[in-house]
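Reviewer comment 2.1 asked that we show a complete input and output for one of the modelled complexes. We chose the 2-aminohexanedioic acid case, as it is the one discussed in the main text.
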Amino acid sequence: MAFKTHNNFIAGRWVPSMTGTTYTITNPARKNEVLGEFQSSTQEDAQRAVAMAADALKGWAETPAPSRAAVLFRALSILESRADEMARSITTEEGKPLLDSQGEVKRAMNIIEYAAGEGRRMFGYTTPSEMPSTMAYTIRRPLGVVAIITPWNFPLAIPAWKIAPALICGNTLVFKPASSTPATAVKFVEVFEEAGLPSGVLNLVTGPGSSVGNTLVESSEVKGISFTGSTEIGTGIYAEGARSLKKVQCEMGGKNAVILMADADLDKAVHGIVQGAFGSTGQRCTATSRVIVEEGVYDEFMDQLIDRTGKLKIGDGLDPEVDVSPLASQSQFDIVTDYIGMGTEEGARLAYGGNALAGGIYDQGYYVGPTIFTDVDPYMRIAQEEIFGPVLTVFKAKDLAEAIEISNSVKFGLSSSIYTRDLTQAFQYVHTVETGMVHINSPTLGGEVHLPFGGLKSSGVGHREQGVEAMEFFSEVITVYVDYAGTPRQ
Ligand code: UN1
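Response of the prediction step:
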């Protein structure tokens, strides 16, 4: 099958890598289907992109924020007109069901709309000075050149919620998407090109983290880094950022738990847990990977959980009937199947699934069925480490205090949820659970773009993403004092 070669986007032009080296990506549901050829860029490509972003900085920073917003509003309507194409692109390169991809496109649109609206706010504040005839106030300025480094599991939404606020604040960008999902990234950059974003303001460099990512992180011209990915890589980026005094925001792993109390609406809880654990094949940092069940409701919950999980349809994400699609790559497949093997070795009980699927379409993709472990000790590796696949671990707790203790027993702190009808329990939970996002009677997933997104502990460092917090991250606050007394001060 014929496929296209895609270039980098530097200084407003689509250009090949200086090395001329490319790589291909394939559809995780059909390993033999090549989706396109992309630039395998090097240090030099990344350096050139940084230099071009630096050249474009003055013009973009001096463009009034409402005019920057006008570009974002145009991008929003172009993205809307290409929504179906974008959703298909996400599904074919990442594998998630089309409905999830459509949701992802909508989310990208929401954040562009929100960030564009900020172009007419971008507030500083004024406050009384302690001196007479003096005015004191703050203004915002861009950071400068910012590196945007994004993962493969949300090829559109995560770039959007970094790029849109970074642009509205007047920064110029070098965007390095995950090497396995560059196709949607190329389309997203085309949207901004068509919207009339000036040359050099948004540059795209595809290729490996070891060459492109490291160059961006180490460049003295890069003043800010917004990263989403593993805790291991994020920790390295944060350390390098500290060394060179860059502003750094890292959104990293999760091991998100739902607490199910005996008084909860069980039907609603099972629905939310199945969606949280197996939706998007568990490949999101907010996925539910642990359920902590109050003893009295345990047996009934397990029956319903297994019943509902058994009804999930597994297949190619392009099939509208499908609930669970393949894992994104061979390496994810290997990681997830290794963890499943490890769970059994550690002595947990495999209550459901646990298999790589075979036969028919399953032989063509990276399919692992929904998997449930019970009798899990909170200190087992499957209970502690991020698996990033459709694997759920179930624990029993005698009361809320023990449930919260188990919930907090991991190094991560991204998202969490409790199902209960009891306000006292719900609020005790809200104030003691160690996560950046807390849900009551809803899945651990997602978030709205005008609210902050991010985690505690090993899940995140630096400012939260989205919401007004994003404007905080992508701008510097300058404090201004104006002495308007007509005479020298005594
Ligand atoms: C979601 O839960 O819908 O990498 C968003 C991730 C997160 C985004 C999750 N940064 O999965």
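The CA atoms of residues 175 and 337 lie 32 Å apart. We note this here for comparison with the apo prediction described in Section 3.2.
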